[in-house]
Structures are given as structure tokens and as C-alpha cells.
Amino acid sequence: MRIARYSYDGEVAFGVVEGPVDAAEVAEIHGHPFGPVEFTGVRHPLADVRLLAPVLPSKVVAIGKNYADHATEMGGEVPEAPLIFLKPSTAVVGDGDPVAYPPSSSRVDFEGELAVVIGRLCRDVPVSRADDVVLGYTCANDVTARDQQKTDGQWSRAKGYDSFCPLGPWIATGVDVADLAVSTRLNGEVKQKGRTSQLVHKIPDLIAYVTTCMTLLPGDVILTGTPAGVGPMQVGDEVTVEIEQIGRLRNPVVAR
């Protein structure tokens, strides 16, 4: 199932995307998707709605250096335990929304990755029960002001600008994400290629680890890490993150 958050005629709703993308419809659901899905009977052609960020998380928990090849290209090693950092909820934008290049940075990079969407309030989740707290998965771009990441000594500013966390286009549920292709294109040219099977710390382990220190709420997001190939983007570029069986996330880059 593909669960989208969308705007139609000034109203915001959740719905299930049905059919092939070029001829899909969105079937509206009552309320939110964090529970039994009940349809309202209202349907719209996908082409007639505006897709929004599929969730508005209270927090985005991101994992650094979780692909060995990316750790190497950044001049380091994979941490023995998952390396956690946070992105603010105000960084989240949706499919098609612009990434705003801040004038305070001279190097802004794309980082395509798989995102986990949490479906229920949880804390201290055992690895064996991690799947129970997952609603589904979506595409993400962990946009980073690389120059500020290097100079600040911590990552809050570099990772936290408004629009630095595109998510979308929807939440895919019931997907086996053990070995999916992840790619990032810059203006149509492939820059990153990896597979989720290459994650050093696997998704159940990440959920267990994160929930030992913080409670996750429905709609919270875990970014699982990016493969090698990260690089700069400029005003006027378009970045596309695509994950097998999930979808494609496109965002233009504009001057802030």
C-alpha cells in the first residue's frame, strides 16, 4: 500500500495511491494512517492533487556513516555503534518542493537514503519486535551544508536548514527492505548507487538502539544512512532519489 499526504482544493488529507503512477488515483482515508485505514469514498486522479511530505514528524533521527563505502569517502570508519544526529521537523519538505540553498554555505550536498516511518508510540523496542512499530518506508534526501559540517564540529546547523529533509513521495507499507536498490541522480546523471543490504547497522537494530534513548512517536522518521557518491548541488539543479519498490523523490534546488 502507498499512503500519501496531499492537498486538493485547499484541503489536506491522507489517501492510498492505487494503480500505476501514470494513471493512479488517490483514495481518501478518514483521519490519519496510524491505525485502521478506513476509506471515505472520495477519490481523485493523482495528477490532480499536490503531494505533500508524507508525514510531519516530531523529529527526524538520522544515522551517520552507515554504509562502509560512504564512511571511507568521508575519511573515516564505520562507528561501532550507530551514530545518531537529529534534523528538525522544520527541515521537512515534500516531493517537488524546492531545497533552498542558504547564502551562508558554499557547499551543499545531496545524500539519498531510505527512511523508516514509525507507526506507533514506542520506547525500548527489542530487535525482535522492531517491525511491529514500523508503518512503512519512504525516500529521503539528507541535505547537508558540507562546509559547515566540517567547521562547526557538530552537525546541527549543517543538517538543520529549512528544506534540508525532503521526504516522499509517499509511504510504502508491507515492503521487504532487506535488499533494495537506492540511487540518487543529479540532473539525470546517476551519482549514488547502493543497496539496503549494505547497511552496516540494520533497520531493526537501529530502531532498538534509537528507542533506548528516546521515545518515538507516530510519524517520526529514521534516516538509515547514505551510500557512497554524495556530492555538491547548485542552484538550478534537480536531485532525484529513487528506491526500488518504494518510489521516486524529486526536488529542485533554488536560492534561499
Number of helices: 4
Structural class: mainly beta
Order of helices and strands: EEEEEEHEEEEEEEHHEEEHEEEE
The CATH topology name of the largest domain reads Fumarylacetoacetate hydrolase, domain 2
Look at the structure and give the CATH class of the largest domain.
Alpha Beta
- Separation, N- and C-terminal Cα atoms: 35 Å
Main sheet attributes: strand count, strand direction, barrel closure = 12 strands, mixed
Could you give the count of β-strands? 20
Shape from CA axes? Answer: globular
Percent helix: 10-25%
Multimerization status: single chain
Radius of gyration: 17 Å
Low-confidence stretches: none
What is the CATH architecture assignment of the largest domain? Alpha-Beta Complex
On the 0 to 100 scale, the average pLDDT is 96
CATH superfamily of the largest domain: Fumarylacetoacetase-like, C-terminal domain
Structure description:
It is a single chain. With 256 residues, the chain is mainly β. The chain has two domains: 50 residues, SH3 type barrels (Roll); 196 residues, Fumarylacetoacetate hydrolase, domain 2 (Alpha-Beta Complex), CATH 3.90.850.10. It has four helices and 20 strands. Strands 1, 2, 3, 4, 5, 6, 7, 8, 11, 12, 14 and 17 form a twelve-stranded mixed β-sheet that branches. A hairpin with a 2-residue loop joins strand 15 and strand 16. The chain is globular. The mean pLDDT is 96.
